[in-house]
Amino acid sequence: MRRDPRTNSTTDRTSCPITPSLFLSGADAPLNRALMTHKGITLIVNATLSLSCPTYPGVECVRVAVPDLPTARLSEHFDRVAARIHNNQAGGTLVHCAAGMSRSPALVMAYLMKYKGVTLCQAHHWVRQRRPFIRLNAGFWDQLLDYEKRLYGKNTTERKMQCSLEVREERNMKY
């Protein structure tokens, strides 16, 4: 990992496979055209405010312009992004944010709950097993809890992240 001068965040050059056709990364992976071709990526979900979407032939980019702040309403994009991932039959999907630690993992967990039928704890474990350094901010965790309740009629965990060792408790910290 290295510090990205554009975002002042730590990024990882690798994309982590979540399913055979779904990948999670920081900001560097979508800039690697050879990697995108090798993984068969035909859809990029860009969950950053200002990083541009690369333009590659046959690759569509969906923008989710939400800051990585606990007060940001990422949940407004859960259904739309999950449906786009699910309906991308043409190839692989890469979901990324600046560091691949908070926004993009939250979007991937929403997809896993909606289309793979798993609980929030199961989705969190699934993603964390494949990308161990994820750290959702507390606001996104709360939004995922609300989404789980909407999908399944109940929550399978508490408001505090109990299916993980880590959560950002800082409610107003900028990332």
TrEMBL record:
Has the keyword Kinase been applied to this entry?
no
Q: Which GO terms describe its cellular component?
A: cytoplasm
This one is known as Protein-tyrosine-phosphatase
Reactions catalysed, semicolon-separated, are:
O-phospho-L-threonyl-[protein] + H2O = L-threonyl-[protein] + phosphate; O-phospho-L-seryl-[protein] + H2O = L-seryl-[protein] + phosphate
What family is reported?
Belongs to the protein-tyrosine phosphatase family. Non-receptor class dual specificity subfamily.
State the organism of origin: Hemibagrus guttatus
What are the leading ranks of the lineage? Eukaryota, Metazoa, Chordata, Craniata, Vertebrata
Annotated Tyrosine-protein phosphatase domain residues: 13-153
**Which SUPFAM superfamilies does the entry link to?**
(Phosphotyrosine protein) phosphatases II
